[in-house]
Specification:
- The protein is an alpha/beta fold.
- Strands 1-2-3 form a 3-stranded parallel sheet, covered by helices on one side. The chain has a two-stranded parallel ribbon with strand order 4-5.
- 31% of the residues lie in helices and 13% in strands.
- It is globular and about 40 Å long.
Length: 123
Amino acid sequence: MFLGSCTNGRISDLRDAAKILKGKQIAKGTRMLVIPASKEVYTKALDEGLIKIFVDAGALVSAPCCGPCLGGHTGIIGPGEVSLSTSNRNFKGRQGSPDGKVYLSSAAVAAASAIEGKIVAPE
């Protein structure tokens, strides 16, 4: 699961996800990466305790950066892996391997899916 990016790593997105993740754990075998959209969003998320909620749930929180959005460093997927992403594009090879699959979702769907280990609605 990838929660963040410059388009969907706003403070409102992080709040939505944290509300669902609070007091819960990310499913075994599931990775969740959180990247706030900007330094300002990161700082606000720290001040509001959202970063602690993500870390306590088992997510990896990174500093604001492009990361998996452009197939960069942290968060890229390998051949056959599936990513549920709140970024704004899902073309072949976007988050790493051209043999991986990227599905787009809201922050709430990404958080609920991280808990369940499969794509689910937050209800």
